[in-house]
Amino acid sequence: MPGKKTADLRENGQGTLEKFIKNTVRESQENRLSLIDGSPIFEEPLVGVADGDDPLFTEYKKIIGPFHFTPREMLERSLALTGGVRRDIKDISVICWALPIAKRTQVTNAHRDEWPSLRWAHTRYYGEKFNESLRQQLVSLLTGQGHLAVAPMLSPLWKLLPNYPGGPTSNWSERHALYVAGMGSFGLSDGFITTKGVAMRCGSVITNMKLPATPRLCVSHTDNCLFYINRSCGVCIDRCPAGAITAKGHNKVQCFDYAHKHLEHLYKRYAVENFGCGLCQTGVPCESGIPAKAKRKNYPDRKADNVRL
């Protein structure tokens, strides 16, 4: 926007970054379902920060795969790849956000049982284009004020390994970064359950700007999922038209094949190039928040410093 004042990170950098992200989500015309009714794609985001040297990022090399980058590796190698000036990098922070999908879109998708609603498909496709823009804008803000920054999903280093055992896997997981940043936990469907629910998209930017890490309250990586707490839920199993979710977890191969083969006939009809059905993220108890029985207040004896995957 012409004449828009640039956010100043010199004082209260974390608060300024959070305000910048929230303002961008609220004001950007890219965050609109412009081909439907012009309403917002995403509602007010959640923002958190992970310590880029948190040991969990190293553990991900065992949990996800040895190819998964730590934040420090991603920042240093991306910088070298683009010909950036090398310098000693003392601090590493990962700025993370969750973009809750608009309630109206959630409702329309909750009524589907085989493929997604038009609003959901546009949210997945055009919403991710806005998310890409948000990542780039945040990188530009940070680098414009003298910091190093990279959005892993936009880095030439980012890769998807489509044939990896267990299903398509990438060398940077934004959901796992959100977990380190204390923003929620995983569910049976592999979705990430935040305080605003599992129906969301997420993003991350790595920087050398020193920022305080968000407290991590979850003791395990499945704390917010009723199925893993006491087997009292399993709605996402019934919601999955591909049969890709069972009591054993989420089969990424079946899920991927369903979205990219069975639903391909909708691409032209919906005016998008790809999308996921998202049925396991809507019409479920964790759709818009953490189910009551899974809320942290029910587990007063758990200690944040004992978090383990």
Helix content: 25-40%
Low-confidence stretches: 296-309
Largest sheet: 4 strands, antiparallel
Inertia-based shape: globular
Order of helices and strands: HEHHEHHEEEHEEEHHEEHH
Radius of gyration in whole Å, from Cα?
A: 19 Å
Instruction: Give the integer mean of the pLDDT values.
Output: 90
Question: What do you see in this structure?
Answer:
A four-stranded antiparallel β-sheet has the order 1-2-8-3, with helices on both faces. A two-stranded antiparallel sheet has the order 4-5. The protein has a two-stranded antiparallel ribbon with strand order 6-7. The chain has one domain (13-297). The chain has helices at residues 13-27, 55-63, 71-81, 103-110, 118-144, 174-180, 226-230, 235-239, 252-262, 266-270, and strands at 46-51, 93-100, 149-150, 160-161, 169-170, 185-186, 192-193, 200-207, 245-246, 249-250. Residues 296-309 have low confidence and may be disordered. The longest helix has 27 residues, at 118-144. A hairpin with a 7-residue loop joins strand 4 (160-161) and strand 5. The chain has 309 residues and is of the alpha+beta class. It contains ten helices and ten strands. The protein starts with 12 loop residues before the first helix and ends in a 39-residue tail after the last helix.
Characteristics of this structure?
10 helices
Quick summary:
The protein is built from 10 helices and 10 strands. It has helices at residues 13-27, 55-63, 71-81, 103-110, 118-144, 174-180, 226-230, 235-239, 252-262, 266-270; strands at 46-51, 93-100, 149-150, 160-161, 169-170, 185-186, 192-193, 200-207, 245-246, 249-250.
